[in-house]
C-alpha cells in the first residue's frame, strides 16, 4: 500500500500535478517534507497549533491511492483476492478458488479517521473477542471469534488519528505492535496478520503538557514528525478564507484582506495567548459573519444584492471574541485589544489598496459640506447620494474594482474610514447607532 502511494505521488510530481489540492501556504515548507516522508514509506505525525490545516492535509492522502481496487467480497479487512490475511478469508479462498467473489472499493473508502477521545478503547482501535460469535458455537481461542477494530479494518488503506495525545497512554501502547511488527494482539493471543496500513496522526505541541502526551515508544515508531504552521504570506491567508468561507453576500477582496491582516496581527499580539494560537477558522468565521451582516441589512432595508461594507467589520469583534484566548493579564481589555488591531488591519489595507490617491478634494468636501452618514440602517444608494460628485469618487471605485452601487458604496466607505484612521476627518456615532464622518 505504501508502494502504491509512493508510485502515485512520484507520477504526480513528474507530471507537475498538485498532490495536495486545496492546501494553501505549505508549498515550500510542509509539503516537501510530507512528500519525502511518504516516498520513504514512513508513518507520520503532524505537529501544529489548532487551525493550521493538519486534518485537511491528511484527508488529501486518499487521492494518492489507486481509484479502484479489488477486495474479497464480504471481507471485514478488505483483503486483495490474491492475498487473503484473515483466517476466514483464507478459508473461503481455499474452498472457493477462482469462484471467490470480489468487489471493487473506491479509494475514498480506504481512508479511516478517528478522533482520539478519552473514552477510546483498545477494542475500538485493534479489536476484541465478539461474544456473539462465541455464542454461535466457536471456541474462545478461534481466531474467527475476533471483532476487528479500526486499524485492522483499514488494511490496505490509511488510518488517521486526530489529537493523538488525547489518547490514553495505555491505549497508545496497543498501537506499538501495529506500527512496528504489523500484527495485532487481542485478549491474550496474537494474530500474525500482515496489516498493511499507513498510520498518520495530528497533535498540538502544547498537548504534551496540557492534556497528555505521545508516549516515547510510540513517538519513536513514527518515521517522520513534521511541524505545520499558519500561512506565512498574506495572499495565502486570503486564499484560505476565499476557499473555505461560505459567503451569501458579495464580500469585496479588500474586506477579506482586512480580516486576514486582523488574524495575523492577533497571532503577533503579546496580549493573545500564542500557545493556543489563532486558528485559520477565525478568519473564515469572520468573513462569514461579515457576509451575514450584509445579508441582514439587505433584508431589513430591501436591497436587491447584499454587499458587505467596512461598517460590517464591527460585528466580528462582538461575535467572535470568544474564539481568541487572551493572556491572564489582559482581563477586561479584550474588546479594546480587538478594536485596536482591527483598526490597524484596516489602516494597513487602505495604505496598500489606495496609496497614491490624492484625497484632498474628498477631505475638503467632507469638511465644508454635510456630514456623511453610514451604518447598518443606511442603504448603499443612500450613502452614495450623500457623497459629493467628485472625480476622486470614481477613482476610488475604479482602483477597488467596484461596479455595482453596493460595491461603490463599500469602496467609498473604506476610503472614508482610511481618512478617519489617518486623522484627516472625524468619526462619531449618532443617536440612531449610525456612523457620521464629518
Helix content: 40-55%
N/C terminus separation: 68 Å
Percent of residues in beta strands: 5-15%
Widest sheet: strand ordering: 4-7-10-1-11
Low-confidence spans: pLDDT under 50, at least 5 residues? none
Total individual domains? 2
CATH level 4 superfamily of the largest domain: P-loop containing nucleotide triphosphate hydrolases
User: What is the CATH topology assignment of the largest domain?
Assistant: Rossmann fold
Treating each run of at least 4 consecutive H or I residues as one helix, how many helices? 20
Q: Name the CATH architecture of the largest domain.
A: 3-Layer(aba) Sandwich
Average pLDDT works out at 88
What general outline do the C-alpha atoms trace?
Answer: elongated
**Beta strand count:** 14
CATH class of the largest domain: Alpha Beta
Structural class: alpha/beta
Largest sheet: 5 strands, parallel
Topology:
Blueprint: H1 2-15, H2 30-40, E1 44-47, H3 54-58, E2 68-72, H4 87-96, E3 102-106, E4 111-115, H5 122-125, E5 127-129, H6 131-135, E6 146-148, H7 150-153, E7 157-162, H8 169-173, H9 176-180, E8 184-186, E9 189-191, E10 197-203, H10 207-210, H11 216-221, E11 224-227, H12 234-244, H13 253-268, H14 280-301, H15 314-320, H16 334-354, H17 360-368, E12 372-374, H18 380-386, H19 391-399, H20 405-421, E13 427-429, E14 435-437
Parallel strand pairs: 1-10, 1-11, 4-7, 7-10
Antiparallel strand pairs: 2-3, 5-6, 8-9, 12-14, 13-14
Amino acid at each position: 500500500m505504501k508502494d502504491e502511494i509512493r508510485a502515485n505521488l512520484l507520477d504526480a510530481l513528474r507530471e507537475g500535478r498538485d498532490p495536495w489540492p486545496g492546501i494553501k501556504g505549505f508549498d515550500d515548507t510542509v509539503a516537501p517534507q510530507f512528500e519525502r516522508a511518504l516516498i520513504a514509506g514512513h508513518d507520520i505525525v503532524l505537529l501544529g497549533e489548532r487551525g493550521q490545516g493538519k486534518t485537511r492535509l491528511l484527508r488529501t492522502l486518499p487521492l494518492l491511492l489507486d481509484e479502484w481496487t479489488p477486495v474479497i467480497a464480504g471481507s471485514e479487512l478488505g483483503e486483495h483476492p490474491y492475498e487473503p490475511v484473515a483466517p476466514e478469508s483464507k478459508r473461503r479462498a481455499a474452498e472457493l478458488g477462482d469462484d471467490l467473489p470480489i468487489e471493487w472499493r473506491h479509494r475514498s473508502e480506504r481512508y479511516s479517521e478517528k478522533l482520539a477521545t478519552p473514552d477510546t478503547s483498545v477494542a475500538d482501535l485493534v479489536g476484541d473477542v465478539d461474544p456473539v460469535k462465541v455464542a454461535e458455537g466457536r471456541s474462545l481461542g478461534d481466531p474467527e471469534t475476533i471483532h476487528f477494530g479500526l486499524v485492522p479494518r483499514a488494511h490496505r488503506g490509511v488510518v488517521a488519528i486526530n489529537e493523538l495525545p488525547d489518547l490514553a497512554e495505555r491505549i497508545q501502547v496497543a498501537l506499538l505492535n501495529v506500527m512496528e511488527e504489523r500484527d495485532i494482539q487481542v485478549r491474550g493471543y496474537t494474530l500474525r496478520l500482515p496489516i498493511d496500513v499507513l498510520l498518520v496522526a495530528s497533535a498540538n505541541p502544547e498537548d504534551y503538557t496540557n492534556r497528555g502526551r505521545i508516549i516515547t515508544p510510540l513517538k519513536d515508531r513514527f518515521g517522520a514528525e513534521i511541524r505545520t504552521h499558519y500561512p506565512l504570506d498574506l495572499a495565502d491567508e486570503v486564499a484560505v478564507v476565499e476557499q473555505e468561507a461560505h459567503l451569501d453576500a458579495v464580500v469585496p477582496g479588500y474586506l477579506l484582506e482586512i480580516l486576514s491582516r486582523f488574524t495575523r496581527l492577533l497571532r503577533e499580539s503579546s496580549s493573545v495567548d500564542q500557545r493556543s494560537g489563532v486558528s485559520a477558522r477565525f478568519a473564515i468565521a469572520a468573513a462569514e459573519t461579515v457576509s451575514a451582516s450584509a445579508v441582514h441589512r439587505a433584508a431589513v432595508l430591501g436591497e436587491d444584492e447584499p454587499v458587505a461594507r467596512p461598517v460590517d467589520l464591527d460585528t466580528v469583534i462582538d461575535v467572535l471574541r470568544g474564539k481568541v484566548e487572551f493572556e491572564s493579564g489582559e482581563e477586561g481589555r479584550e474588546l479594546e485589544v480587538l478594536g485596536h488591531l482591527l483598526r490597524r488591519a484596516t489602516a494597513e489595507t487602505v495604505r496598500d489598496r489606495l496609496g497614491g490617491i490624492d484625497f484632498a478634494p474628498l477631505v475638503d468636501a467632507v469638511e465644508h459640506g454635510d456630514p456623511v452618514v453610514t451604518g447598518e440602517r443606511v442603504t448603499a444608494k443612500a450613502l452614495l447620494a450623500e457623497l459629493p460628485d467628485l472625480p476622486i469618487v470614481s477613482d476610488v471605485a475604479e482602483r477597488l474594482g467596484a461596479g455595482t452601487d453596493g460595491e461603490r458604496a463599500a469602496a467609498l466607505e473604506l476610503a472614508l474610514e482610511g481618512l478617519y484612521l489617518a486623522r484627516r476627518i472625524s468619526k462619531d456615532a449618532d443617536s440612531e447607532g449610525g456612523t457620521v464622518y464629518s
